[in-house]
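2024-03-11 09:14:02 INFO queue: dequeued item 3-oxoacyl-[acyl-carrier-protein] reductase, len=249
2024-03-11 09:14:02 INFO validating residues
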Amino acid sequence: MKLLENKVAVVTGASRGIGEAIALKFAEQGANVAFTYLSSDEKAKALEAKLTALGVKAKAYKSNAAVYEETETLIADVLKEFGKIDICVNNAGISKDNLLLRLSPDQWDEVMDVNLKSVYNMTKQVIRPMMKAKTGSIINMSSVIGIMGNAGQSSYAASKAGIIGFTKSIAQELGSRNIRCNAVAPGFIETDMTSYLKDGEGASAYIQQIPLARFGTPEDIANVCLFLASDMSSYVTGQTISACGGLCM
Ligand code: NAP
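2024-03-11 09:14:37 INFO prediction written
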């Protein structure tokens, strides 16, 4: 028996990186998957084909998670196409690193909108159908940077810390409706977002700080999301699970 048989999942920002690994992992476990992206049309089409080849229903939606109206349209379209939403993974995110002295208001706003407002936008849309169905799992992608902070990442850290507070609040608001809401806090994961760390001269300095002595893979994070999406975590809500090789304890 697959862990997500007959479930419908929505994953934001899945054309590459962690989101793509989550979409694939969920499909392998039997879920039908609707996923979003912003600009990578070809990658999104390729993922849609890969998911469909796994024998599930899958559809890519070009939809900006930072724009409320777009998420409203997205969720209406997904419900029409898939009939229900059991799982929502708010994964879309960006980083615009700069020391505060040089951080412009526009850079601040962009990170807040894509990383934090998007989580409000999507969660607000999915809770109605989940409440009706009396079941749901919402998974928000935070970061260890939201717990530890990091010089040059004040906007990113603030957005990811905000996700943790939001997650705990939604868990409290909707627990009685059997809707769970949890966050995942990845450490350094090998994706486009961190390629400058891995390939740079400082890579070994980062690895020295990680007890498991390696960067994580997108699949490491997808496995945690699978646990949180499935009934294996039926008594887990309001939590932030760090998946960081021990970087943050
Ligand atoms: P990534 O490789 O840069 O991929 C980002 C994904 O998000 C892409 O699919 C991109 O779509 C999509 N996206 C960006 N802005 C969007 C928007 N406004 N609306 C919808 N989709 C949007 O990033 P990643 O490393 O996989 O990170 C995924 C999540 O994990 C992010 O929230 C990130 O903050 C978090 N995280 C990552 C790490 C890490 O080390 N990589 C660590 C901690 C937390 P397009 O391809 O179409 O642009």
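2024-03-11 09:14:37 INFO annotate: The first strand starts at residue 8 and ends at 11.
2024-03-11 09:14:38 INFO item closed
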